[in-house]
Amino acid sequence: MSLPGTTAKSPARAGGLTCTQRDWSQALAFDETHLWHPYAPIGGAAPAWPVVAAEGVRLVLADGRRLIDGMSSWWAAIHGYNHPVLNRAVRGQLRSMAHVMFGGLTHGPAIDLGRRLVDLTPAPLEKVFLCDSGSVAVEVAIKMALQYWQGRGRPAKRRLLALRGGYHGDTLGAMSVCDPVMGMHRSFAGVVPTQVFAPRPACRFDEPWEPAAISECARLITTHQDELAAVILEPIAQGAGGMWFYHPEYLRAVRALCDAHGVLLIADEIATGFGRTGRLFACDHAGVAPDILCLGKALTGGYMTLAATLATTEIAETITRGEAGCLMHGPTFMANPLACAVAVASIDLLLSGDWQVRVRRIEEQMRRELDACRGLPAVRDVRVLGAIGVVEMRAPLDTRRLMARFVEAGVWVRPFGHLVYLMPPYVMRARDLSVLTGAIKAVLSEA
Question: CATH for 50-82+355-446?
Fold first, then answer.
């Protein structure tokens, strides 16, 4: 039965062959016509390559080609794919329960994960909110900051200061603290809240510290302190906003400014957490602790969608004493047992191995091999930090064409804007990494 004003779908349109029957021509035609992909037009203008399996650091396409994955599935699959330890964790939890609501109930995987997160993060962070995704973790962090100041009797402190070049997610509050000019959310200007923005830190990670680099941020915090609830930033390494690495002293200075002017500090470590920059958390480069910390992406080793927002006891207790009496957020799939179980296994797997040695080896190899791109006329800059390698171009890239060339070269690399970058799984071997860096140089040489 159709709703008023609609027409019923024909059996052919509503059904059809499934992808398990290997009719990929029909399946891809449906995909192009009906499925939205991230930041891509619908209708086949940006075709997607069908993946049928993933193993180790390789993606297997429907036509049998095997691609070395340089993206870790958007930086999450730090242990590679189809890992026996993580598979075992999922199967073991599935035998008990796949999901149970977290409202009024609890379960072992959530408690085990909470213990690990409290133990691993800086001492002031003792309260854990388990949510669905990185964007939601940022939304929760913003709510925590706003409710904290409401509980302190200062509701006027409801704006945030963020950094130019930052990216914090795609939901409404998260969009408001992404770069408003160069970011991906300019279409929503006038709809999202208006925040305060400091210049992107000009002091590079590997250059001498210049105290003047913090001056404008200091001025803005001082000027707006009575209305600022928090400063939110990606510590040390900005991700999707430009892959920029800045000096640890900048982060130390922001922490001191927040303390001096009564402003909370939110660290968005969704992309950088769990070893990506060479330290377990990027804040460790500066030796600072935020008031609120956002984690995601690699939290489950790329197996399930899960994120966490941690806060200090003072923030949690102040929110509880406030008018609402609780933090006003509660996702349906909060603390999903499957996701929590595999997150525990992923953290234990990371800490039980030589991840620091692996990340350092990846960093050193990318420095050597990507450095060969510096001589290309189209290249503006090459930079590497931990298991992040970036080649910045002088002009915007034809992303669709470059992706096709990378697939032809047997690698999965997804450029954006002016950037071609690598965030490989930590388990990647030197010869596979060389294939990735070699493909980047070859493809950019053509460009």
Answer: 3.90.1150.10
Choosing from 31, 268, 291, 432, the catalytic residue is 268
Q: Is 39 a catalytic residue?
A: yes
Instruction: Please indicate whether the domains covering 50-82+355-446 and 88-352 agree at the CATH topology level.
Output: no
Mean predicted confidence (pLDDT) in 100-110:
98
Q: Is 167 a catalytic residue?
A: yes
Residue 425, CA distances (Å) to 227, 237, 295, 338, 403 in order: 41, 18, 18, 22, 19
Q: Is this structure's pTM higher than 0.90? A: yes
Q: For residue 205, give both structure tokens.
A: 């990670």
Q: Are 157 and 226 in contact (CB under 8 A)?
A: yes
Given the residues 167, 246, 250, 421, select the one marked as catalytic.
Answer: 167
Catalytic position from the list 23, 39, 259, 354: 39
Which structure tokens are listed for 144? 């925590």
Encode 246-263: b = buried (16+ Cβ within 10 Å), e = exposed. bbbbbbbbbbebbeebeb
* 268 among known catalytic residues: yes
Is 432 a catalytic site residue?
A: no
Give the pLDDT confidence of 69-80 residue by residue, as tens digits.
Answer: 999 999 999 999
